[in-house]
Amino acid sequence: MASVARLRAALVVAVLAVAGCSSSSSSTTTSPGALSSxxxxxxxxxxxxxxxxxPNPEGGECLGPLxxxxxxxxxxxxPGLTYQVPVPHWRNYEDTPGNFLLVPPGNDLPGINxxxxxxxxxxxxxxxxxxxxxxxxxxxxxxxVPATPTAMAAWLxxxxxxxxxxxxxxxxxxxxxxxxxxxxxSGAHLPTCHVDGDTFSVALLFSGLxxxxxxxxxxxxMTMRLYxxxxxxxxxxxxxxxxxxxxxxVAGLSRVAEGFRFAG
Length: 264
Description:
Layout: H1 4-9, E1 34-35, E2 52-53, E3 64-65, E4 72-73, E5 81-83, E6 91-95, E7 99-103, H2 109-114, E8 119-123, E9 126-133, E10 138-141, H3 149-157, E11 162-164, E12 168-172, E13 175-184, E14 192-195, E15 198-201, E16 203-208, E17 215-218, E18 222-231, E19 234-243, H4 250-257, E20 261-262
Antiparallel strand pairs: 1-2, 3-6, 4-5, 5-20, 6-7, 7-8, 8-19, 9-10, 9-16, 11-13, 12-13, 13-18, 14-15, 16-17, 18-19
């Protein structure tokens, strides 16, 4: 089930079951499992972590703490994703069929729930979305906006609540598309939705399509960088969230994300 706090933070989770939507950004029902992989030194780019258990109950086959300079490959995320982190204390908190999550040093999973931590998320398939009811935070895809990088970037640029950078062509890990930075416009009155006694002020941007499960948006005091990439017949997204008062920067998160390699 969804963590209500995550919607408050940055919609790192989906809006809640009472709205008829799926749950968290790691909403897979897969139980945390043991990970078996060959051993190796942190400096060996072909090495992988020792056997471990995912520390996030909703994280599927996540690895938890990561070693700097080690090459990791997702267990179940589609498409397969190979990545490295540059320094210790990065953590992988989700590896599900449609959702992948990295949290940088000085940040943590509870901080994501509270809106105080930065993160990198990767989602196999997304589409622009909107609230249909502020009571229950119900959402639906935006009609007549195709799930393509060009259409998504154009739709974002047209939203009066948002300050959006000019879309720039980008290629990451063999997938091509567009890169944009998004913030809530200064002084904008963000929609406020209500569910289970909690209140969330957020500009909803996009939702997941199977196998991804999420509803994400921007809150005040954060920058979201989106890599909108063509994948199969839809759009894969890499999302970087930089909370103003959290450790780390968009540039630092981008260096990690731009080193991703996708299978196929």
